[in-house]
Specification:
The protein has 6 helices and 5 strands, in the order E-H-E-H-H-E-H-H-E-E-H. With 151 residues, the chain is α/β, with parallel strands linked by helices. Strands 3-2-1-4-5 form a 5-stranded parallel β-sheet.
């Protein structure tokens, strides 16, 4: 299972004007992910455009950071992918999957911007931008991971 992870509106509210609130939802996500050691993480957040993979991993606890296996490419760097998929973040995820050594893996994207994905995409779990991964969203993500892993 691969978890494609956005930051803004997921790991903290968006907008987030208080630096002390950055990654305020991360401890909740990490605690839940420890129950699912088979889940790998790919960063799909725009933070990947201005930070290295090692810098992105440094925001996470060591054990969870070690499960981050990459970042999605920019749709601008993959000729034709946007025209085929039609939605920016979804196109970037599809490009990563197609170029990975595990294209058969199940995946879930956690994001607060559904307009970046095809409508009604079953792989998308939308968060509320103002609350991010609150307790209800974590419970929903847990259910989705459990159901997907049981398949």
């Amino acid at each position: 299972m691969i978890l494609f992870l956005d930051f803004d509106g997921v790991l903290h509210s968006e907008p987030c004007y208080d630096k002390a609130q950055l990654f305020s939802c991360l401890p909740r996500l990490e605690a839940m992910l420890r129950d699912f050691p088979e889940v790998k993480i790919v960063i799909s957040s725009t933070w990947r455009e201005s930070r290295s993979l090692s810098e992105l991993k440094s925001f996470f606890s060591h054990d969870i950071g070690a499960r981050i296996i990459g970042v999605t490419p920019s749709w601008r760097d993959i000729p034709g992918i946007f025209e085929v998929i039609g939605y920016q973040r979804h196109a970037e995820i599809e490009a990563w999957i197609r170029n990975s050594d595990m294209p058969w893996q199940q995946w879930i994207a956690v994001d607060d911007k559904p307009y970046l994905y095809k409508p009604f995409l079953p792989n998308l779990m939308k968060t509320n931008s103002s609350t991010g991964l609150d307790e209800a969203a974590i419970a929903s993500l847990r259910q989705r991971l459990e159901a997907a892993i049981r398949k």
